Amino acid sequence: MIDPFGRTISYLRLSVTDRCDLRCTYCMPERMQFLPRAEVLSIEELDRVASAFVRLGVRKLRLTGGEPLVRRGLMTLVEGLSRHLASGALDEITMTTNGTQLAEFAGPLAAAGVQRVNVSLDHLDPAAYTRITRGGDVAKVIAGIDAAQAAGIAIKLNAVALRHDNADHLVALAEWAHARGAELSVIEVMPLGEVEADRLDQYIPLTEIRARFAERWALTDLVRSTGGPARYVRTSEGGTIGFITPLTHNFCGGCNRVRLTCTGQLFLCLGDDADADLRTPLRASEDDRLLDAAIVAAMTRKPERHSFDYGVKAPAVARHMSRTGG
To answer: Considering the entire predicted model, what is its pTM?
Structure first.
């Protein structure tokens, strides 16, 4: 699949639910209204639409949410989709999770062929973590990371940089990750959906965060392609840190991904409202020709770049990340 700007689309981020067991302050309001369950695709439908993307050239599949591990029947989906790994049609199935349920699922995920997982972790201090997540227990996340690494799953930590909540803690978080053989990626907070907090107050450009890392280590830029938006550095002690900078240095020129929500709405760009309805053709016929045609047609409308800009307004996009798929 080629978009109008010559980019090959080989990466699908598939949201299996918009629900989450945390309420992170930068992600959603405390009293979040989730989608009616009747609107959500079944496990069988999620398998069918993901398989259509694989058939059309997607090589990497990431399962997201909300929190994917709270979706009932998730392992049935993962085990089913693993047939594409066995056939060679798919290079990898990965997942982004908050880690609270990972201790339970690490073994089955590894058995189904999941070799890498991204874990969202913004602070190691129990009180700070509970405040940021509105009630989360960081000990459960650490137990999940332990279980995943014991099962042979590689871990990358994702931390959203928050000026007043964790900017002074990210060096320590990187040290902790590297001591465990894990990588850390730091992400600029994005203007997606209304939250109680002031987005501009939360926001800190990663140029400032990189400067803090540079006070701790000598940093060497890496030429590395992982299919994602991060730019990586190697520290003088051998650890790896990624920077995801949708505001200060957009990564649109190399975009190779699209996002499908749990309701079958295909978003062609995280920071743009361009979308396509795949649920209707999915349910209109058991023949996949309508679905395939809808996917191919959607690619012709992928925008050149996103529209994130704190200088104009916040949020730039009304939908929350939990609905879009992380």
So the answer is: 0.89
